[in-house]
Write a sequence for this structure.
């Protein structure tokens, strides 16, 4: 199954390229949501690290309590390392994707405008949906 047929069931795509644009937009939106979630998780875990450090700083504790505080701090720091790693990787990928997609979208818009001008000048009244079965038999 091709992407046009897959996407056209959910959204009326007027071209094969616009079907890809719709999918890429959806991916970028999901990526942005994940980026925001990771950013919030990093902020929350940083607050938790600060809380544990303040707890250590302000309390007098014996060896057993100190062990538990150190263990808690280690656990929180390990979680932070994982979250931060995912945040950094996604941030890098998202910025590259956004730049590339914006460049591709500008070129797509230019080409789509020229194609539409040509279709209008030739009085072409049919669209991709009218020839889709001829393409994907």
């Amino acid at each position: 199954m091709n992407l046009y047929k897959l996407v056209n069931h959910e959204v009326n795509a007027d071209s094969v390229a616009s079907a890809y644009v719709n999918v890429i937009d959806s991916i970028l939106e999901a990526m942005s949501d994940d980026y925001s979630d990771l950013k919030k998780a990093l902020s929350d875990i940083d607050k938790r690290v600060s809380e544990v450090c303040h707890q250590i700083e302000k309390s007098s504790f014996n060896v057993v309590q100190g062990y538990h505080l150190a263990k808690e701090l280690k656990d929180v720091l390990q979680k932070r390392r994982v979250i931060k790693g995912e945040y950094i990787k996604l941030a890098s990928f998202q910025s590259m994707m956004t730049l590339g997609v914006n460049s591709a979208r500008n070129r797509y818009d230019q080409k789509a405008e020229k194609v539409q001008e040509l279709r209008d000048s030739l009085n072409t009244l049919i669209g991709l949906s009218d020839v889709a079965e001829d393409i994907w038999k």
The two ends are 10 Å apart (CA to CA). The CA atoms of residues 116 and 124 lie 9 Å apart. The chain has a mean pLDDT of 88.
